[in-house]
């Protein structure tokens, strides 16, 4: 399983949606519950966030590769989680 990193801001409305979509995808597809996600709140860990190449949040990295940046839809979150299982 590939590691997943999610960069977010706690007050970002798009990030809040992404977090909800993650929970919904895991509830609908139990196999996705096994995917671990390292949650990185960029304002709390700015030094770590600065080592990654992105501008917008939420941003997902799977296996060290940026796979999504910015606003996200439920089907995209499911695809991201499934890519970690490959």
From TrEMBL:
<feature type="domain" description="Glutaredoxin">
    <location>
        <begin position="4"/>
        <end position="65"/>
    </location>
</feature>
<protein>
    <submittedName>
        <fullName>Thioredoxin family protein</fullName>
    </submittedName>
</protein>
<dbReference type="Pfam" id="PF00462">
    <property type="entry name" value="Glutaredoxin"/>
</dbReference>
<dbReference type="InterPro" id="IPR036249">
    <property type="entry name" value="Thioredoxin-like_sf"/>
</dbReference>
<dbReference type="InterPro" id="IPR011767">
    <property type="entry name" value="GLR_AS"/>
</dbReference>
<dbReference type="InterPro" id="IPR002109">
    <property type="entry name" value="Glutaredoxin"/>
</dbReference>
């Amino acid at each position: 399983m590939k590691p997943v990193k999610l960069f977010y801001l706690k007050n970002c409305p798009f990030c809040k949606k992404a977090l909800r979509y993650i929970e919904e995808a895991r509830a609908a597809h139990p196999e996705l519950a096994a995917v671990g996600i390292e949650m990185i709140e960029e304002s709390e860990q700015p030094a770590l966030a600065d080592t990654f190449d992105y501008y917008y949040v939420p941003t997902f990295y799977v296996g060290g590769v940026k796979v999504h940046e910015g606003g996200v839809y439920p089907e995209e979150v499911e695809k991201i989680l499934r890519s970690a299982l490959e």
